[in-house]
Specification:
- It is a single chain.
- The radius of gyration is 18 Å and the shape is globular.
- The chain has one domain.
- It is mainly alpha-helical.
- The longest helix is centred in the N-terminal third of the chain and has 34 residues.
- Helix 1 runs parallel beside helix 12.
- The protein has a three-stranded antiparallel β-sheet with strand order 1-3-2.
């Protein structure tokens, strides 16, 4: 019987667009399925915007995102505009900013996030209805990947100033529905690749703005291949068969 040997770095490149597709589908469903209305009740995007982005850490009791982590998460955005947006969310009473720049949810912000988790529970249940086995397999595989990624980050001393370190592990209170687990684990894995991508373009002499403007061609391809190499580490925890199953499960999800 022929077998396909899907090396971790090749898998990293194939998995990224599949992860993006499923994650974006879940987040769009959340926005259209009650998230936008929920945001308006709390003051609109000006009040709640970064709470959505940082939900997997700030929803946790006492959860904070430090200044280097926030900078990593928002590395492609204008830092002055980001700070002004945070100022507005502080003024709305949704986010607390400590003197050292670390962010946490206020009581009102935490209430918004609890409702947001419920919205995501409802929409992902509908979006991925009939795919319970796939969702369960993906949740389990992603759990192993994220746990191993955290181990590798600790071993490499790479737990500061990264988007992954800022948001991993995602907050998963008892009873969190499988669809929410899947959505938030996918989002956290995207942060891991985002950090690998940033390391790759930094090593190539780029900045966030210059790499964003880089056209398709040999230089961009080289950065993407280096991103795959840097992102590959956690995938060693999965067998070649498990990697193929993960790709197939993501491809089969509606969205």
């Amino acid at each position: 019987m022929n077998t396909v040997e899907l090396a971790p770095h090749r898998f990293a490149g194939l998995l990224a667009p599949a992860v993006d597709r499923a994650f974006v589908a879940g987040m769009l469903a959340g926005r259209d399925g009650g998230g936008a209305e929920l945001s308006q009740r709390y003051g609109g995007p000006a009040a709640s915007g970064f709470l959505v982005d940082l939900r997997t850490r700030l929803a946790a009791p006492g959860g904070t995102v430090d200044e280097p982590g926030f900078a990593a998460i928002t590395r492609y955005r204008d830092p002055v505009a980001c700070q002004r947006a945070v100022d507005k969310q502080v003024a709305h009473g949704m986010i607390h900013r400590r003197p050292d720049g670390a962010l946490s949810a206020t009581e009102r912000g935490a209430a918004f996030l609890a409702e947001l988790y419920q919205v995501h529970a409802e929409v992902t249940e509908e979006l991925w209805a009939g795919h319970d086995d796939r969702v369960s397999r993906l949740v389990a595989a992603l759990g192993r990947l994220l746990a191993y990624a955290l181990v590798l980050a600790d071993e490499e001393g790479d737990r500061g100033g990264s988007a992954f370190a800022a948001l991993a592990p995602p907050y998963e209170p008892d009873g969190t529905p499988p669809g929410v687990l899947l959505l938030n684990r996918l989002g956290t894995l995207r942060c891991h690749r985002a950090d690998a991508h940033a390391a790759a373009w930094t090593a190539a002499g780029h900045t966030a703005s210059s790499v964003a403007a880089l056209p398709a061609g040999p230089e961009r391809l080289a950065i993407e291949l280096e991103t795959d190499r840097r992102a590959a580490g956690p995938y060693a925890v999965l067998s070649a068969e498990e990697r193929l199953t993960m790709l197939a499960d993501l491809a089969a999800l509606p969205g």
